[in-house]
Structures are given as C-alpha cells and as structure tokens.
Amino acid sequence: MGKRISRTVPVAHTLLGSLLAGASFSAVAQGQTLPAEALDWQAWSQDEAPQQLCRGRYVMPGYRLPAEENPETLSVETAEVDYAADGEALLRGDVVLRRGNTELQAERVFLPAERQQVDAEGNLAIRDGQALVRGEQATLMLNEDRASLRNSHYVLYEQHLRGQASQLEQTGESQYRLQEATFTTCDPGANSWQLVSSDIRLDQASGFGTARHARLQVKDVPVFYWPWLRFPIDDRRHTGLLSPSVSFSSDGFDYTQPFYWNIAPNHDATITPRWMSDRGLLLNGEYRYLLEQSQGLVEGGYLDSDGGTSSGDNRFEGDDRWYIDAQHAGTLTARSDYQLRYGAASDGRYFDDFGGEFGNSDRVSMERLAQVDYRGERWQLDARAQGFQRLEDPLSDTDRPFYRLPSLTANSDWQLGSGLYTQWRSNATYFWRDVDERRVPEREAAIGSRLHLTPAVGWRYEQPWGYIEPRTELWHTAYELDYGDRVTDRATSPTRSVAITSIDSGLVFERELELGGRDYRQTLEPRVNYAYVPRTNQTQLPDFDSRERAFSWDQLWSPHRFSGADRVGDLNRVSLGVQSRLIEDSAGRDRLTLGVGQSVYFSERRIDSEGDPDTLPPRPGEDPSVNPQSRYQATRDRSPLVTRLDWQISDRWSTGYEWLYDDEREQTERSSVDVRYRHPAGHVVNLGYRWEIEGFDPSVIPGDDGFRDYSREEWDLSLAWKASPRIDLIGRYLHDQTNNRPLEQIAGLQWNDCCYGVQLVWREWIDDNDTARVGDDFNDRGLFLRFVFRGLGGVGQEADGYFEQAIPGYRPTPL
C-alpha cells in the first residue's frame, strides 16, 4: 500500500447532510444483522449496568479527521489514490472523507472529474454525531438531493433506535424511501419487537412517513398488520390515531380509540370513540385553541340510549347520556383577565359511570362562570356570574347550590405605617336557584340579593422575639329577598351589623441544641389568641353559603365559626397554645414540629345554622332532626385539646399526627396518624389511620348526605416498591373498620424494559358516598393491562395519574 495522503477540496453542497437528517424517522428496515460493535454500541460497566434498563447505549466514536475552518471544505484521507488524465480519482484502502460534522468511511471511493457524484462501496459507514448509517454500496449526488444506499443499517444515538433497509434512497429534497425496512428501540440482538414494512416513504418537510404492508412483530411473530400506515417522524403535532385503551371489568369489555386532528398550529381536536360492551358507543371529543390574547377548551361526550349494565341496576337504561364543558380565558389589559365556562351533564352519575381515569372520577360539579377581574396597585376588583351543577344522584332540592347572578367584589388594603393597617372587603351578590321553595328549610327558601361590607382595622407589632396584633372587623350585611310561593313571616329586607374583635399574640424563645452529634436550633413559641363576637339575632337571614366549620388547629386562632357571610357565630373565648420546633441548622429545615392548644369559652355558642341567639339546640332525644352532638358543642366550657406533630425522623422516615381529645368526656373526637417512608431509589410506603367520632360535624343534620351516625374508622396502607430498575410493584389496601369491609384494593406490577413496558393492575373498590347507608354504595372490580412499545406507542388504559393520587409520594416510571 502507498503512504497516506490528505487533500482538501472545496465543494458547493454538503456531503450526505440531507441523507443523515433523514435518518430521524420513526419506522425503518430489515436484512442481515450486524455485530453490536459495528453499530457503535457500548455496553454499560458493571457498576452502571444494575441501574439501567438497557444493556448499553449508542456512542459515536471520535472523528478520524480534524474539522476544517471552512465547514464547506471536503477533507480526504486514503491509503492509495489513482488519478486519471481527465481528473477522475479512485481512492482505495482505508478511505475517510469529512465535510462539516459528516464523515464517510469506505474501502473504495470513486470521484468523477466533475465532482458531482461520489460512489462508495465496501464496509461503508456514515456518521454525523446524531446518526450512523452503514451499507455495502452508496451513490451520492453532490449537486442534487439524491442518494442511494444498498443493504443499509442505521442507528439514531439519542433515540436509542436502530433499523435496516435493503434499499435506502433520497428521492428529492427531504424526501426518502426505504424498501424492506425495519425499526425498533430494542438493544442490538434483542428484537423483542420491531415494525416491518416493504416500502416506507419519509417526508421531512411535512413531518410524516407512510408505510405499505406494515406489520408489528413481537419476537419475530407478526401480531398486527396495516395495509397502509401514516405516522409522524418528528415532534410536531400530526393528525392520526393515538394509542388505544383496552380494559376488562365486571361490566364487560371497554375499548377506546382516540383520533388526533391537527387543525392548525393553534387549533387541534381529539375525537375519541369508546365502545363498552354493556352500554354501547360513547363518543367523546375535545377541541383546543390558542389565540393571541386568549385560549380555550371545549370537551364533551354523548351516548345514544344507554344500554344498561350486566347487573341490571342502571336506572338510566335507554336514556341519552352526555356532558359538555367549554372553557375560555383571556387577557383584556395588563391588569385585567376574564374567564368563561359552561359545564353541564345529563345526570349526576355520568362521571361515576363513564368519566373516571382508571375507573375513578373526582368531578363533583360542573361549573358555569363568566368572570372579569382587575388587579390595581390599590384595588382588586372582581365581577362574575357563577353557578354549579352538583353531580349527585338523586339530588334533593336542599342540596342544589345557589347561582350567583351576578357577584361583584371590591377589596383593598392600606398600610398606614408603624404596623397600623386598614382593609376593605365588600361583595354584592344576587343568589338564585330553581327549586320548589316549599320543600326546603325556610332559611334556604329565599332568593335575592346580599350586600356584604367588612371594613377592618388592625395593628401588628412584630419583633424577632414575638408579635402582637389586635384587630377589629365590622360585618354589615343587608338583603333584599323573595320567598316566592312560600308562606312565611320572615322579613324580606333584613340587615345585620356585628363587630368581630380579636387579639393574637405570641413569643419566640430559641436555644442552641446538640443531639446525636448534630447542631439544632430549638424554639418554644407560646401563643395566646382572644376573640369576641357578640351574639346577634340572625333568624331573619337566609342561608345562601354558610356552613359551620369543624374544629381544628387552625380554628383555635380564628374568630370565624362559619364559612360564608350569612352566619356570624357568637364567640367569647381565649385560645392557649404552644409550639416547639427543632430546626436543623445545617439544612435550615424543621426536623420536628410539636404543637398543643385548647380554647376556653366564657359563654355558650348559641348561633347555629338557624341563627337564633336565644335558644340552644335541643338535648339528644328531644328532636331527632338535630345533630345529637349540637347541644354539647354549643355548651361545652372548652374545646377539645388539639395536638399535632410533624416529625422528619430521618431522611427516609417521617410521620404526622393530629389528635383532638375531649378532656371533659375523656374521649377522642378525631385522630389521624400517618407514617411515611421514602427511599432515594423510589421505594414508597404509607400507613395511615383515621378516626372520627359520630356526628362530629354539628352543622350536618340527620338525613343530609354528609351526616354519619357512626364513628368512622379507616386504615390505609399503600406502597410502591422498585424491586429493580425493571420491576415496579404497587399496592393499596383501604379498610373501613366501621363496617368491616375493604373500600379499595389494588395490586399491580409494572415491567420496564429498554424497548417496551407492561403494566398489569387488579383493582376492586367501593364508592362509599361517605354516609352510613351501606346499601347505596357502588361496587366494581377490574383487571387492567397496558402494553407500551417505546418509540412506537402503546395499548391500554393509563393509570399513572391515579396511582400518584392513591399512593402519596409515588412517581411511576414513565411507560
């Protein structure tokens, strides 16, 4: 062999640049396999391998030739070269050509005199930093967008993708054709699956590819066939079929096939037919749009004549079932936004029957809203018309929510210096609902307007060692009411004015502390809060949006016994509490927070949902329509003792605890404890216990859906264990100790492989409705299977979002 020589020759067009760009496709090719090393495959080291799904990765070796200053320059290196008189050149031996980031290696390269074509053959390899293409023979037209390779193999490094083609051609600018082609994301030598086609055409300009006579092979066994297939070859959105969803449950077979329609860069739609063997065809759709100053979403579903269920207990059988939810939001000015929304469903059980991800739905209402706001430097303004359809079936008149038609709000704050401040809160609302006013409690029978003004003045003095904050709010509320056909002697223009006074104060003591060789800062923070709300007659006031709040740690420090503005609970109490924190100096985080507090009452709390200041709730047994706990809650001398704990035991273990204990009756009113384990590898374990005494919420009366005439006790165990990088184990068991039954059981396995994933989950659950009536609970069970071909898509119902909700702390391995 002759000595090596090197030449640099300027040319007008890139060498193989277009060809290699065309390698970023999603489906490609078949033929004789190559050793993994020939595909630039690099196995993981023994230390790295246990943490990886794939056995290795594709890594481009270094360039054989250095980069030229001018990226248009063609560098050539060869062992032998023969020149003809007319300028033709034949390069033989170990030939290397480089231009820019593209490098060609071959045994023989022929360069015609006009330098418009390159013919290469023998152990051909083309690399550009993103892809590798190998073949036996290649013809490259340097002045045209044309090229051809025979018996080619290709690799995309970042996508972990490889394939083969008996013939790979560039037929025009960004146009490619592959014959007898395959595509897979599996490791070399491990064809768990591959897509095979006799003819694939790729169009980079449109971002699409088409394949004829395409078939999906699993372990070289054909499992699916497409006479013609269109697929995306880049990250742009494209019209086409999305991954289907298949599930089996006690209700039968359920198949969903979404279709995505890329209408325009700022408009798209998803049309999702869903076939349920026991009910029929449900057609779902979603339309999204993005404009210069606004965006929106319209979604809905329609089932023509519900076919019923296999159990035969569907009272909607034969009915049309549907829902619609349209949302639009935009910007008017830099300080003003607006929102529009309309939601409605054919019935309150629609989402229980059809709408849940993985058999569960968290929709409880459908909102109707028209709202505009303004955020000024001083004032915050809000105007809205708002209502809700409560998703509950059956739905009584008393449970129907009020519409706000409209509701106008104006709020502002002023800092006057030296800790002195004033606030203004105001709202005017017209309340309406379509019910028979003769069939609801008298206080809920009216519709009409409410003007609510709450100016406040306060002073906060704060130092590192503590603070004090006296504050007074004036609540003035005026109504104009209409009771319709309801016969009543209640006033139609009642008013109420009441002052709410409170003083909040606290001290902070600190000391340095060393525990277990670590430095900590321990605080001791006593707190005293006094609140006084005079007893005011509110029997003439309606009840549009008020509800008595359940007692908690936060209620120790709040003067407001009710939510909403229709009721102001009388109060004369002092709350005493102390909190201690253990702060880890090195990290600045709380390792331990422990608090205990209690309220001492100086008078009875006579104001309840009726608003009567002169009477107390009847004693238990005197009136069965009243919560039996109401009288005791109104007359007790002190609140339950509230204790809470939040302890970060170690970097992996933590616990939280809350306990409400009645030291008069020596019984627990409510308690909860949670123990949490978090491992850096992704292991998650949660154990929770919850107890709540009978009738704990005094604002709920027997007959209401939220009333419980039993002491609720539940256990909740959930875990997600990454047995290996390939195996995720998940499980949950939620037990209703009161009725001695499981509320939910989940057991699942997720197998994660380099080129595919499998998720198999069994779930059995009860929709409890949170009442003592066990007979109206809804039971279901199902086996859910999802199979994903990485880089191609998958089949099955996605359940990852539900797992994250049911198993706190769990982050599923993406499939």
TrEMBL record:
One of the Pfam families matching this protein, by short name: LptD_N
Similarity comment: Belongs to the LptD family.
Keyword field contains Signal: yes
Lineage, uppermost ranks: Bacteria, Pseudomonadati, Pseudomonadota, Gammaproteobacteria, Oceanospirillales
Sorted UniProt keywords: Cell outer membrane, Membrane, Signal
Organism: Vreelandella lutescens
Residues making up the signal peptide according to the UniProt record: 1-29
Subcellular location: Cell outer membrane
Start and end residues of each Organic solvent tolerance-like N-terminal domain: 79-207
UniProt xrefs under PANTHER family: LPS-ASSEMBLY PROTEIN, LPS-ASSEMBLY PROTEIN LPTD
Assembly: Component of the lipopolysaccharide transport and assembly complex. Interacts with LptE and LptA.
Region span, Disordered: 603-638
Name this protein carries in UniProt: LPS-assembly protein LptD
Superkingdom of this protein's organism: Bacteria
Cross-referenced InterPro entries: LipoPS_assembly_LptD (IPR020889), LptD (IPR050218), LptD_C (IPR007543), OstA-like_N (IPR005653)
Residue intervals of the LptD C-terminal domain: 320-722
Physiological role: Together with LptE, is involved in the assembly of lipopolysaccharide (LPS) at the surface of the outer membrane.
